[in-house]
Design goal:
35% helix, binds iron/sulfur cluster, alpha/beta, binds FE(8)-S(7) cluster, globular, seven-stranded mixed β-sheet, 519 residues
């Protein structure tokens, strides 16, 4: 197994590694020319200022490229049930909260079942480009199952990128194996670099047959996480750091974490809101520890943005998620269904589909650039948020009542920048509007000036207007960024002419666990 493991190894030469690391260090903004901002990595469809080697790694990865997440899907296989640490935001009865939303139990798979599932999904969803192992425990606390799965997939579906998410405790022991399997993307969840703070997040860690607690446990964890991060980046593997924002515990400290991981070569930082509710049975849920509000989260992400690329499109997916980020098709691929499926994995069909997607991406960016030119010379400090109902492909193509989440863009004279998403309850239940759901939708997008939809009924329209949110349906089925810029231009014209007065909006609620799977 070791021989085959290192065949075609991804470990580049030391000189090449140095080159790539320098390029990452120099790189700011992932090619986000044209005013789209540098907050969301790879938000332009083109390569921009990214070195080709890195661009090839991120361009089709829905988590490492904000722009790609509108077009490409990922899947997780839940082959790793055990964990070697305890986080106060996790209850082992549920999925790993590092990379999944607690509250839905995954179907655990053997590596062989997982490999079959990957082929089944790849032949059904040609835009699925990435296979991640993210739990439900820690993949590196289950190294045999994790690496066996990678080995099988490398053999049967070599065009699929492999991805891994870990708490980092066991990482230094496995870096060479990870590199040997051509894994280009590793996520480490790092919530602190100060063990005193760590002791408030982790009651224990289990390492080398011994249980550690308190500050000692947190010190061990942070040392191993940072060591693992350095080892990966030295080998040219792209690393994303996930951090859970826990107000009053590590929220201010995450700025330090951001600096520490950037200096060790992390490519992307993903600060996620704590998911915490008493019914999850977690320590934080039971002690009433709250998560951040939308504005608190955005302010922290904004303050770290000057330091490095920030991910803002994370959906805190479950450990068996399938589909575009924000949608969940895992119910179509349960073990009994995939075992009965006839799998037809056709590389040419997948390539042809992906070529079509690339054409769409290029057209979308060209449309945005053209619209952006209309803002040239505009002098205004106004920055505002708008919400968008979309099913994907970067289009305004979802009915208001059918939206399970809204994507949020920040508009300014620099253009339209993706800054997050908000989960909501479905407003339209079998043709009837649900007033209670409408209230939760309004609370979730209360910081937005407008909501862009493909279609909307009269009642919700009136209620949104009363709440001060303009429903916009004149750009149905058009590109999001181009439309948002056009709307913003007309908004500025109205403000400049005195027709309307610009007012700041209030805060919004981050809804937790609202995207309940049908599974
Ligand atoms: Fe999965 Fe994670 Fe790989 Fe993506 S998810 S292992 S990097 S393929 Fe993505 Fe999901 Fe957020 Fe994770 S949206 S929870 S960041
Ligand atoms: Fe839970 Fe993941 Fe933390 Fe382990 S690392 S305790 S599975 S959240």
């Amino acid at each position: 197994m070791q021989a085959s493991l290192h065949e075609g190894t991804a470990v580049p030469s030391a000189a090449k590694v140095g080159e790539v690391m320098q390029a990452i260090a120099d790189h700011k903004g992932c090619g986000t020319s044209g005013g789209s901002g540098k907050a969301s990595c790879g938000s332009a469809a083109g390569q921009g200022d990214l070195p080709t080697e890195i661009w090839e790694k991120v361009k089709n990865h829905p988590c490492y490229s904000e722009e790609a997440h509108h077009h490409y899907a990922r899947m997780h296989v839940a082959v790793a049930p055990a964990c070697n640490i305890q986080c106060n935001y996790c209850n082992r009865k549920y999925d790993c909260a590092n990379e999944s939303r607690p509250g839905v139990v995954s179907e655990k798979l053997t590596p062989e079942q997982a490999a079959k599932k990957v082929l089944a999904v790849a032949s059904t969803i040609p835009q699925m480009t990435v296979l991640g192992i993210a739990g439900p425990g820690d993949p590196l606390a289950n190294p045999e199952k994790t690496f066996k799965t990678f080995e099988l997939i490398n053999k049967t579906a070599p065009d699929i990128k492999l991805c891994l998410s870990t708490n980092g405790l066991a990482l230094p022991d496995h870096v060479d194996t990870i590199a040997g399997f051509n894994v280009d993307h590793v996520t480490i969840t790092i919530n602190m670099v100060d063990p005193e703070i760590g002791a408030k997040i982790y009651p224990w860690v289990f390492w080398k047959h011994k249980r550690y607690t308190g500050v000692e446990a947190a010190k061990l964890l942070t040392d191993r996480q940072l060591q693992g991060l350095e080892m990966l980046t030295e080998r040219g593997i792209l690393c994303k750091v996930n951090s859970v924002m826990i107000p009053g515990v590590n929220d201010k400290h995450l700025v330090e974490v951001n600096k520490a991981v950037k200096s060790r070569g992390a490519f992307l930082h993903n600060i996620m809101p704590l998911i915490s509710a008493p019914e999850h049975g977690t320590v934080f849920g039971l002690t009433g520890q709250r998560g951040p509000t939308a504005q608190e989260l955005k302010a922290l992400q904004d303050s770290c943005e000057g330091e490095m690329n920030m991910m803002r499109h994370c959906r805190q997916c479950r450990a068996d998620a399938v589909g575009l980020l924000g949608e969940d098709r895992s119910a179509e691929f349960t073990t009994d269904k995939i075992m009965a499926m006839e799998v037809n994995y056709d590389l040419d069909t997948r390539k042809a589909y992906q070529a079509k997607v690339e054409e769409e991406r290029v057209a979308k960016v060209a449309a945005k650039q053209e619209e952006l030119s209309t803002l040239a010379g505009e002098m205004s400090d106004i920055k505002l948020l708008v919400a968008v109902a979309t099913k994907g492909s970067g289009l305004i193509n979802e009915h208001f009542g059918h939206a399970k989440e809204f994507q949020v863009y920040e508009l300014s004279t620099s253009g339209a920048k993706f800054v997050g998403h908000r989960r909501v309850d479905l407003y339209c239940q079998g043709g009837f509007g649900d007033e209670e759901s409408l209230e939760t939708v309004i609370r979730a997008i209360n910081d937005c000036h407008a909501v862009f939809v493909a279609k909307i009924g009269g009642c919700p329209k009136a209620d949104l207007l009363t709440a001060g949110i303009e429903p916009v349906d004149q750009f149905a089925h058009e590109f999001i960024e181009k439309s948002a810029i056009a709307w913003f231009k007309s908004y500025l014209d109205k403000v400049n002419s005195g027709e309307i007065e610009h007012v700041e909006r209030g805060d919004a609620e981050i809804r937790q666990g609202a995207l309940i799977s049908a599974a």
